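Students often ask why we bother encoding 3D structure as a string. The short answer is that it lets us treat folding as translation between two languages. Here is a chain of 298 residues written in the first language.
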Amino acid sequence: MRYLILLLLLPAFLWGAKILSYNVYDRNDRVDVMLTFDTPYEGVLRQNRQGNTLIIKLEEAFIDAPKVKDVNSKYLEKLTIAPQGEHIEIVAQVSQDVAMQASKTSDSYGLRLRFMPSTAAASAETPPVDETSLAGLPTKSNSEFEQSYYVVIVIMLIGIAILFWLKQNIAKRTATMNTEPKTPWLFNKTAKEPKPTQQAAPTKAQTDIGGGVHIRFQKSLDANNTVAMLDYGTMSYLVLLGANTILLDKFQDNIPVTQNDFETLLQSKHRELDGYFQLAPTQDEAFDSYKEKASGVY
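And here it is in the second language, the structure alphabet:
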């Protein structure tokens, strides 16, 4: 974005002020041509007359495309504005007794070219513009428009910097979220955990499976089912792993620390395990009651 702004401002730095618009005002005693610039015009105006043709040269100014205007006034018949290298050339077809006077607005954003009879132009107390600079015309060095122009550019640059900073932070957070380990649903960190108590030290049988979950003991019951004791935080869970994952029991105290302790625990649960494998389809309601009871907090 900032490169685009610099690209848009580049013509102004290289060639000066750009003509944004022009208007022709046909009066009874004169014709005024008003030029509007995008920046204060501080260039030099020169004019040269060749019969009924006035050639006006605006240095340090440019325009996107040539402009042609038929006025059909007794003071000005036709006006042409065309770019010529690093300056603009304005060609005015006027009557023999018509002269041109130039003056800038107080903020230098506007330039008026007035075409009027030579006698009226001579009576007006204005300095000649031939081979002279417009610097002698009344101007305001520190206009409010110029200050507003720079304020807008500064605000745009600040906004671009803020957007870039937000983009960098969002990218960092997204990368952090993608690298964090996913916790199994059974051990969701948002769930309320009991207060920590003294727990037996991990044994060699424990295996880390990610997300802070460790396998303390496990034993295969058949080709499709395995009973395991998992550690998560300060709790241990007795889980039946198979076609469905069933939570059989939770432990915070009296957690088995040896394989023999685990085998003893399984012996105490053998009736419940046998009942699970012997469940018929008509016993689904009783099995759901068992799961609700087994998953309760002890």
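Translate back mentally: The chain has two domains: 10-146, 185-294. Keep this in mind for the problem set.
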